[in-house]
Amino acid sequence: MFEERNYKRTFYSAPQSVTSLVAALLEPAIIVAVFLAATVAHDEPVSRAALTLCLLVFALTFPGRNRFKDKLLNAATDIVSSWVPLLAILYLCGYATRSLHYFENDVLLSWALVTPWVQWVAVWIGRTILRRRALQPHLRKSAIIVGASPLGVKVAAALEGDKEEGRDFLGWFDDRADERVAGETTGRMLGGLKDVAPYVRTHGVADVFITLPLGSQPRILELLESIQGTTASLYFVPDVFGISIVQGRLQDMNGVPVVGILETPFTGTNELVKRISDIMLASIILVLISPLLLAIAIGVKLSSPGPAIFRQKRNGLDGGEITVYKFRSMRTMDNGPVIAQATKEDPRITPFGAFLRRTSLDELPQFINVLQGRMSIVGPRPHAVAHNEMYREMIKAYMVRHKVKPGITGWAQVNGLRGETDTVEKMKARVEYDLEYLRNWSLVLDLQIMVRTIRVIFFDRNAY
Fold it and tell me: DSSP class of residue 413?
């Protein structure tokens, strides 16, 4: 049993696996190495501009994605979908800062074409090494699960599906009668809780996964005392499948272990990276589109009476109210306690406004919101306050999407959920994509969403 005075020394964030560490360094290292190799191959000097680009790319791509467990086709798709947006952003920055002339076109072209191939080959080699290593008998580890519940079944499926880890799942232990345990455990029950420690010693079990409910604390403590007399590694698996976990991690709070299950991904360095990228990109985009903004404003004024900019109250970070800017696309400016969503052939929408909404040009003033710090370029789309009050009561974990700043575009929008959400099911699907974005955020994911947004604007017809 852990003593209170040992908490600070005992509890730490989970250490990074060797493969994750290799992957974190490998992707940015390959990108930089291929660029330098292309520079040398074309007899170009490694100039100060080249070194600056290398540092910038390394910062943008670190840590690299761990693709060693992905299927090769999925890995190839992921590599390309990450690489193309990065090149697009670098080109945009180079164009805006007039620094493209520092680099030879042949070098950039070779770099752009060769890098994804080298990354894929590295993934194939790493995947092959892991699989061969996992097949070596002396490196394989046996594992058992204490708790023949639906959660225990899920853990067993995870163990048997992760071939690269080299684990052999032996079976379950549980004190309950056969009719009370999960049906999938039939024929693989190894005994009750009192049998765990002797079985571990006799069979040299390496890993023990405990999936008992928290209400079984006395039994868990007794089990821990008995297993700690062996050399097995112990893992407690809490049943949190009914909770929308965002950025779950183990933290040390002045010597007290705290398990975070719902936290914003934008803390510390991530918050700084997100804000800097928002400011840089929003500034560049606003400069480039300023003539377009002026033309649209004139078009709105000519299309119907009223202001060019529509200001609407929406919920932002942590649910606080913010003012969001849009080009006015309707004859009315609804901003009250009850707001009807825009529908197809909505009589409130002007002909020019329909064009703006279909192409998302009405959202362009929100880049000003980004500079103000109210929004991000990428994030969950903000909904009207009236809609939030309605959906927060109808959809589980709806308000979790407000753990980050709302975005001009988002993961849900590039996955087909753009425009009217005329059913609760559609809004639930949008929320699920928003939560997935919070769980998996990275700067590369933001870049992918930005590039995919351009394609959606031209080919998607769901917005009106």
Answer: G
Alpha-carbon Rg for the chain in angstroms: 27
Which CATH number is 140-239's, of 3.40.710.10, 3.40.50.720, 3.40.50.1240, 3.30.70.250?
3.40.50.720
Is the whole model's pTM more than 0.70, yes or no? no
**Domain parsing of the chain, residue ranges:** 18-135, 140-239, 269-459
SS3 269: helix
Percent helix, percent strand, percent coil in the chain, to nearest 5: 55, 15, 30
- Specify the DSSP class assigned to residue 311: E
Sequence-ordered strand ranges (E) for 178-285: 189-191, 207-210, 233-236, 249-253, 256-260
Three-state SS for 452?
helix
Q: Which residue's structure tokens are 């800017």?
A: 325
Separation of alpha carbons 421 and 450, rounded Å: 22
Longest dimension (CA), the chain: 84
The rounded distance, in Å, linking the Cα atoms of 428 and 364 is 26
Pairwise CA distance, residues 415 & 30, whole Å: 30
**How far does CA 393 lie from the centroid of its chain?**
25
Token pair for 92: 């945009």
The alpha carbon of 248 is separated from its chain's Cα centroid by a whole number of angstroms, namely 12
Residue-wise pLDDT tens digits, 134-152: 777 777 888 889 888 888 8
Give dist(CA 220, CA 214) in Å, integer. 8
CA atoms within a 13 Å half-sphere pointing along the CA-CB vector of 204:
5
Tokens found for residue 128: 């092959």
The alpha carbon dihedral of 410, 416, 417, 419 has a sign of positive
pLDDT in tens, 285-300: 999 999 999 999 999 8
DSSP state of 381: P
CA 227 to chain centre: 37
**Virtual CA dihedral for 308, 401, 58, 91, nearest 10 degrees?**
-20
d(CA 362, CA 365): 7
Which segments of the chain have a pLDDT < 70?
1-18, 163-165, 177-187, 214-216, 239-261, 331-347, 419-422, 458-464
